[in-house]
Amino acid sequence: MSTDLMPNRYRPGESELPRRESELIARRDKVLGASYRLQYRRPVHFIRGEGMWLYDPDGRAYLDFYNNVPCLGHCHPEVNAAMADQAGRISANTRYLEPKLVDYAARLVGTFPNELDRVVFTCTGSESNDLALRIARCASGKEGVIVSTYAYHGTSAATAAVSPNLGDAVKLSPFVRMVSLPGPAGVPEAQAADFFEMQIRSAIMDLKRRGIGVAALLIDSIFSSDGVWVDPPGFVAGGAAAVREAGGLVIADEVQPGFGRTGAYMWGFERHGIVPDLVTLGKPMGNGFPIGAVVGRRAPMEQFGATSRYSNTFAGNTVGIAAAEAVLTILQRDQIPQKALAVSERLRAGLEKLAKQRHEVRAIRNAGLFFGVDMGAEGTPAAGRRAIAVDVVNAMRDDGVLISTTGANEDTLKVRPPLVCQAEHVDLFLASMERALIRVAG
Fold it and tell me: Needs which cofactor (predicted)?
C-alpha cells in the first residue's frame, strides 16, 4: 500500500508555476487548513465549465474524464435553470409541507426494486453513510461493520472510522472488520464468489466471538477506492446473504456507481443481482448541488424513526430537490445511461488496442463509464507502477485531459467522465493517453 496519502498532488518547489497561480497558492496556505491538497503536480485553475470541458483563466479548455459529480456535464443549463427558479421562490426544509419533495421522493424510489420504498434525504454521501450506519445498528442491535480493505465511505467521524482508504493515522473503529476482494488477491473469477463469502463469514465469526455482532456489510458495488474491481458480476451475493443470516443489514454505497454510471443498470448493486436493505446516494444526485439520500426497506426505516430523531435543516431543501428532479428527468428522458454504455464500449475497445501497443498498460476493468486501468508491466515493483501512473496522469493534465489514480498502491488510473461523454471525447482522451505513455516511456 502506498504510504503517500495522495501521490498525485502538488508539492511546493517540485514544479515551476506561473506567478498568478503561485501567489494564489500562497494566499490559500495562509487561510486554509493543512488537510487540504491540490491535485496534480501543477495545480489546475478553472473559472468556468461547460459540458465535458473546464476552462482556465486564459481560456484553455481541459477535457474532464475524472469528475463524476456533474454526471450530466458541468453547468447543465436545465439543472441550473431549475435551481435558479426554485431559489427565486423559496428554499424551505422538510418540516414544512412541500409537494415537490413528495413527488421527487416517489419518482426516486420508483427507480429501485419494490422492496426499497422509503427515502430520507441528506446533503452529502458522507451524511448518507453515517445515517445508514445508525439505521443498521438500530435495526440489528449490533455494532460491527464489514468493509473492503481499501474502502472509502465518507469524512464524518463515523464514516472515517469505516474508511481504510484515509490512511493509517485515521484510526478504524474496533467494531470494523476488513475483507479482501478476490481481484486484488489474485483469485480466479470462477472462485471469486466463494472467496468473498468465506472472507465475510470469517469476519462475522470474529465479530460474534468478541460479543460485537454484525450490524452491516457496507460496500461500494464498483469498489472504486480499491481499484475498480467490478468482476465477476454477482460475486458479492453470497457474502451479502451471510450477513443477513447473521442478523445484519446490507448497505450499498451508490455514491460512485449510482445514477446510471454502469450503463446497463441505474444502480450498481443491480449488476450483482442483490437487493440491499439500505442504499446511500450522494454526489451525482444534484449534478453538483449538495444533496444525498438513504433509500431503504420500510422495516428498518420505521424502527429507526420510532426510536430516533433525524432532523437536518438543509437535507431535502427545495432547491436541492429541484436540482435532483431535473437530473432524474434528464437521465430518463434523454436515455443517458444507455448512451453512456455505448460510449463505454468504444472507450474499452480503444484502451484494449492501446494495451496491445504499450506494455505500460497492465490491465483494464470497467462497468459502464467507470474504468480502472492498471499501470506498469507485470513484474514492475509497486513503487515503479505507482510512479508510471502518476506520471501518466500529470502528462495528460499538461495535455489538457483530466484523470487521477486509485487503488491501494495508487497505480490504477481512475477514468470516470461525466455521463454525457461522446465518441469524439473518447477519441481525444485515447490520443492524449497514447501521447502520455510515449512521453513517460522516454
Answer: pyridoxal 5'-phosphate
Average pLDDT over residues 83-91: 94
| Number of separate domains in the chain | 2
367, 229 Cβ separation under 8 angstroms:
no
Give this prediction's pTM: 0.95
Q: For position 5, what pLDDT does the model report?
A: 60
Q: Is residue 6 part of a domain?
A: no
Q: What is the largest CA-CA distance in the chain?
A: 64
197 and 211 part of one domain: yes
Residue 24 within a domain = no
- 31 domain residue, yes or no: no
Distance CA 345, CA 6 (A): 30
Instruction: Using alpha carbons, select from 199, 300, 281 the residue that is nearest to residue 240.
Output: 199
Degrees to nearest 5, angle at CA 119 with 330 and 298: 135
Number of H helices, E strands in the chain: 13, 15
85: number of CA atoms within 13 Å, CB side? 11
Strand spans (E) along 33-143:
48-50, 53-55, 61-64, 116-122
Domain that holds residue 98: 77-333
SS3 342: helix
Q: In this structure, are 350 and 204 located in the same domain? A: no
63 shares its domain with 127: no
| Residue 141 in this model has a pLDDT that exceeds 80 | yes
As a whole number of Å, the end-to-end CA separation of the chain is 27
Do 202 and 105 fall into the same domain? yes
Burial 179-213 (b: 16+ CB within 10 A, else e): bbbbbbeebeeeebbebbbbbbbebbeebeeeebb
Lowest mean pLDDT: which of 30-39, 185-194, 278-287?
Answer: 30-39
The C-alpha cell 415537490 sits at 100
